[in-house]
Design a protein that fits this description.
Elements: E1 4-9, H1 30-43, E2 48-56, H2 64-72, E3 75-86, H3 93-101, E4 106-112, H4 116-122, H5 128-140, E5 146-152, H6 159-172, E6 176-181, H7 189-195, H8 204-220, E7 224-227, E8 230-232, H9 239-245, E9 251-253, E10 258-261, E11 264-268, H10 272-280, E12 286-291, H11 294-305, E13 313-314, H12 318-329, E14 333-336, E15 339-342, H13 344-348, H14 350-356
Parallel strand pairs: 1-2, 1-9, 2-3, 3-4, 4-5, 5-6
Antiparallel strand pairs: 6-8, 7-8, 10-11, 11-12, 13-15, 14-15
Helix pairs in contact: 1-10, 6-8
This protein binds S-adenosylmethionine and iron/sulfur cluster.
Organism: Haliovirga abyssi
Function: Probably acts as a heme chaperone, transferring heme to an unknown acceptor. Binds one molecule of heme per monomer, possibly covalently. Binds 1 [4Fe-4S] cluster. The cluster is coordinated with 3 cysteines and an exchangeable S-adenosyl-L-methionine.
InterPro entries: Aldolase_TIM, Coproporphyrinogen-III_oxidase, Elp3/MiaA/NifB-like_rSAM, HemW-like, rSAM, rSAM_sf
Length: about 350
C-alpha cells in the first residue's frame, strides 16, 4: 500500500557549504518546474496520502499559490500529516499563516545552529536571531508540530558552543528535533576546502563526545530519542519519516527525488532537461531503478529498522538471527523476544552494525 509522498523543491537562495542535495541557487526553470511537477504528481493520481512531505531545497521560496496548486494536485486523506520545510529568512509571519491556512500542519525549520560563527562557516543565509524569529513566528501562526534541524561536529564547533545550542533548543521547546553530525560530501565547498587544507574537521573522539552529550541532554529535558538522529516529545514522532524507517513504500516526486514502489527503489532524473522530456513523453521521470529481490528487501528492513532505537526490528530468518546474535556478543545489539535494538554502544557504531547485514 502507498500512502506517503515526498515532493522535492530544488531551489535555494544560495548553496550551503556542506550540501550536496539536488538544489540550484538560480531561478532558471523555476516557473516551468512547478508546471512539470504538477504533471508528474498527476501521474500518481491513484494514490491517497496520509503523510505528505514537501522538502528541498527550499520549499518556503514557493509562492503560496504554487503551494496551493501542488497540494490540490494530489489526493490527501483526512487528518493527514502535511510537513513543509522552511528556511529562516525566506518567510515571514504572514506567509506562515497562509501556509497554515492551506492545511499544512507540521513545519521543519532548518536552523542548523544558534551560533553565528557556526552558521557563517556552514554558509547559511541567516543568523541565529532570524532562525529564532522564524520559529516564534511559526508558533504564533498556529503551528503546534514543529521540527528544528540542527547539525553538530561542524568545523570550529566546541562542546561549549554545542551546549549553548542545546540551551536555546530547550528554551524554544519544539516538538521535534533532528540533529545530524556533519557528513563531508563530494561536490561541496567543504570538500574543496578540505582538499586545500582550509577545513579542520572535528575529530572522531570529539564527535562521539558531542553525540553522547546531545542524547543525555535531550533525554533529560523530556525528548525521546526514537531514531539515531531524531528526538521528539511523546506522540510527536514524524509519521512520514517513520514510514521510511519501517521500510514502507512511498512516492518520491520532483527533480532528483527517491521513491519506493512495488519493491522497486527509484531515483528521478537530476537535470531539468531530462526531467521535462520524460514528462512531455508521458513517462515517469525516473533515472534509475533498483529492483529488490527478497534478500535486498530483508536487508533494507533490518538496516532501516535498527535505526529506530526504541522500536527496533523483528528478525526471524535464521541467517540474519545468526548475524544479530554475533552482534549481541559484541555488545552492539540487544534483543527482546525476536526484536533487536542498537545498544548505547551500538548507537555510536551503527554503520559497523549495518554492514554486517549486507551480504
Ligand atoms: C537537505 S536539507 C533541507 C532543509 C532546508 N533546505 C535547510 O537547509 O534548512 C535537510 C537537512 O539535512 C541536513 N544536512 C544536509 N546536508 C548535510 C550534511 N552534509 N551533513 C549533515 N547534515 C546535513 C541539514 O540539517 C538540513 O537541514
Ligand atoms: S542545506 Fe538546505 S538551504 Fe542549504 S543548500 Fe542544502 S537544501 Fe539548500
Amino acid at each position: 500500500m502507498i500512502d506517503a509522498i515526498y515532493i522535492h523543491i530544488p531551489f535555494c537562495v544560495k548553496k550551503c557549504n556542506y550540501c550536496d542535495f539536488v538544489s540550484f541557487s538560480n531561478n532558471k526553470n523555476r516557473d516551468l518546474y512547478i508546471k512539470y511537477l504538477i504533471k508528474e504528481l498527476k501521474l500518481y493520481s491513484n494514490y491517497v496520502y496520509d503523510t505528505v512531505y514537501i522538502g528541498g531545497g527550499t520549499p518556503s521560496l514557493l509562492k503560496i499559490e504554487e503551494v496551493k496548486e501542488i497540494l490540490n494536485s494530489i489526493n490527501i486523506a483526512k487528518n493527514a500529516e502535511i510537513t513543509f520545510e522552511i528556511n529562516p529568512k525566506t518567510v515571514d509571519y504572514e506567509k506562515l499563516k497562509e501556509l497554515k491556512n492551506l492545511g499544512i500542519n507540521r513545519v521543519s525549520i532548518g536552523c542548523q545552529s544558534f551560533n553565528n560563527e557556526t552558521l557563517k562557516i556552514l554558509g547559511r543565509i541567516h543568523n541565529s536571531e532570524i532562525a529564532i524569529k522564524t520559529y516564534k513566528d511559526a508558533r504564533k501562526a498556529g503551528f503546534d508540530n514543529i521540527n528544528l534541524d540542527l547539525m553538530f561536529a561542524v568545523p570550529g564547533q566546541t562542546l561549549k558552543t554545542l551546549k549553548k545550542d542545546l540551551n536555546v533548543l530547550e528554551e524554544l521547546s519544539p516538538q521535534h528535533i533532528s540533529i545530524y553530525s556533519l557528513i563531508l560530501e563530494e561536490n561541496t565547498k567543504f570538500w574543496e576546502m578540505k582538499k586545500s587544507g582550509e577545513l579542520n574537521l572535528v575529530g572522531e573522539d570529539l564527535e562521539a563526545e558531542m553525540y553522547k552529550y546531545i542524547i543525555e541532554y535531550l533525554e533529560n529535558i523530556g525528548y525521546n530519542q526514537y531514531e539515531i538522529s531524531n528526538f521528539s516529545k511523546t506522540n510527536y514522532e514524524s509519521k512520514h519519516n517513520l514510514k521510511y524507517w519501517r521500510n514502507q513504500h512511498y512516492v518520491g516526486a520532483g527533480l532528483g527525488a527517491s521513491g519506493y514502489i512495488q519493491n522497486k527503489r527509484y531515483k528521478n532524473e537530476i537535470t531539468f532537461e531530462k526531467y521535462f522530456e520524460k514528462i512531455d513523453n508521458k513517462k515517469f521521470p525516473i533515472k534509475e531503478v533498483e529492483k529488490l529481490n527478497d534478500r535486498h528487501i530483508e536487508e533494507y528492513k533490518y538496516i532501516l529498522g535498527l535505526r529506530l532505537v526504541r522500536e527496533g526490528v523483528e528478525i526471524l530468518n535464521s541467517e540474519y538471527v545468526e548475524i544479530a546474535e554475533k552482534l549481541i556478543k559484541r555488545h552492539l545489539l540487544n534483543r527482546i523476544k525476536n526484536r533487536y535494538f542498537l545498544t548505547k554502544k551500538g548507537l555510536f557504531l551503527a554503520n559497523d552494525v549495518f554492514v554486517e547485514f549486507i551480504k
